[in-house]
Design goal:
Layout (H helix, E strand, L loop, with lengths): L17 H6 L21 H17 L10 E7 L2 E8 L1 E2 L2 E2 L6 E2 L4 H14 L3 E2 L12 H5 L3 H4 L6 H5 L24 H9 L14 H11 L2 E2 L9 H13 L5 E2 L21 E4 L2 E4 L23 E3 L1 H11 L7 H7 L4 E2 L4 E3 L4 E4 L3 E10 L2 E10 L4 E8 L7 H13 L1
Antiparallel strand pairs: 1-2, 1-17, 3-4, 5-11, 6-7, 8-11, 9-10, 12-13, 13-14, 14-15, 15-16, 16-17
Organism: Methylovirgula ligni
InterPro entries: AmpC-like, Beta-lactam-related, Beta-lactam/transpept-like
Protein name: CubicO group peptidase (Beta-lactamase class C family)
Length: about 425
């Protein structure tokens, strides 16, 4: 689930947002809001201090007192070099860091898209039919010739990836009989989708988590060369994405060794609580005033929003995506392309939003699941240089992480 569907048609200028500065009470007026010399892209202690200051004020704007200030972790990279990875706030009485774990919501779609495209590139076939996967493969060739799929012959793998399927978003409008506050198996959710009325054909962009759930299901019905049985979606992402990219702590919601009950009263405690999970610490979610949020069980989020990661690991992912030795250039270029028009200046690729600026191209995606908000951005300059900003928080009440990332981007380019 994207952060209040951040694809809405808001042009995000590559400069510090004047509105954001006003909300900071003018404390950063020493930073010019004229166009930044993007060729600079160097790092210094002064820039680090400026970022500390705007993050501190951002947190103050989103918390009533010290106990309710959202914890936040970020990473910054310039041309593949990590220049900052740090945390702001505490969890269980200990400072959060760049290695603190958070649920990352719809940033998961970046991994799902990359794995699906890599399967296509490697020559994967549908297990039961032997049909070779491509962007043009109809879903009826993957999921069988049931009436639901036969009635929508125009539905293809490519339409799922680019959000042009026109399939209803089940996390916005759950299937009849499905309870979003209760667990659901992926097979039951798939069955519920198949029993819905067919959608009408449309080439328009329509953000729907259903698309990426179906991509995860597709992966589990496909065979890669040399395989005799399909891998699970989780195993595919671990082996194809997380391990090659060096994302040592990235995992999935249901991988956690410790679990928590959304009905438990302890979850209404301040967000300083935390769980220890393997080598990294998972900050517990802040649900605000909601004691029992919907869509917290893993299969509701499968393929679209079920990953858990750190700011450091997201830097590793961004670096891998920009390095053709790890993520093939054909896969990267497909993901970072303007496939579906969202607004006059904003497009959706595959797992990323795409916006062309005068001096750069901005690739981004936000995420919001119960208790967490996230944002990941890569900015590629016309001369080929690039930087990335990843921001994670254990509060789902935050708005403006994209503005914060834009402000950080301005400082990088000074």
């Amino acid at each position: 689930m994207d952060q209040r569907l951040k694809f809405r048609a808001r042009s995000r200028a590559r400069e510090i947002s004047p509105g954001f500065l006003r909300r900071l009470g003018g404390c950063l007026l020493f930073i010019s809001v004229t166009a930044a010399p993007v060729h600079a892209q160097s790092w210094s202690a002064a820039k680090s201090a400026q970022i500390d200051q705007i993050v501190a004020h951002f947190r103050e704007l989103n918390g009533a007192d010290e106990a309710t200030l959202p914890s936040l972790s970020l990473s910054i990279g310039i041309d593949g070099r990590l220049v900052a990875a740090k945390g702001y706030g505490s969890s269980d009485g200990k400072p959060v860091t760049g290695n603190t774990l958070y649920e990352i919501g719809s940033i998961t779609k970046q991994f799902t898209a990359a794995a699906a495209l890599e399967m296509i590139r490697s020559g994967a076939v549908v297990g039961h039919s032997g049909t070779k996967l491509s962007l043009a493969t109809p879903l009826s060739a993957v999921f069988g010739d049931g009436q639901y799929w036969k009635a929508q012959p125009w539905l293809t793998v490519g339409r799922l990836l680019t959000m042009r399927s026109n399939l209803p978003n089940f996390t916005r409008r759950p299937p009849d009989g499905a309870d979003p506050w209760q667990p659901i198996s992926d097979s039951a959710l798939f069955h519920d989708i198949e029993t819905q009325p067919p959608s009408e054909q449309s080439d328009d962009f329509d953000y729907s988590n259903t698309n990426y759930f179906l991509l995860a299901e597709l992966m589990e019905q496909s065979l890669q060369p040399g395989q005799t049985r399909p891998q699970t979606y989780h195993d595919l992402l671990r082996r194809r994405i997380f391990e090659p990219a060096g994302m040592a702590n990235t995992r999935f919601i249901d991988d956690q060794q410790a679990t928590f009950d959304p009905d438990a009263s302890t979850l209404s405690a301040p967000i300083s609580a935390a769980l220890k999970v393997q080598s990294a610490t998972l900050a517990l979610p802040d649900y605000g005033r909601r004691l029992r949020p919907a869509f917290t069980h893993p299969d509701w989020l499968k393929g679209s929003a079920d990953a858990v990661s750190t700011a450091l690991d997201l830097f590793a992912w961004d670096k891998a995506l920009m390095d053709p030795k790890i993520v093939p250039a054909a896969v990267r270029d497909a993901m970072l392309s303007g496939q579906a028009r969202v607004s006059p200046t904003l497009y959706y690729g595959m797992g990323w939003f795409y916006e062309e600026k005068d001096d750069s191209t901005v690739f981004s995606h936000s995420g919001s699941v119960p208790g967490y908000t996230s944002y990941n951005e890569i900015v590629r300059q016309k001369d080929g240089r690039w930087f990335c900003v990843s921001i994670l928080s254990n509060s789902d009440q935050l708005d403006g992480l994209d503005d914060l990332a834009n402000s950080i981007g301005y400082i990088i380019g000074e």
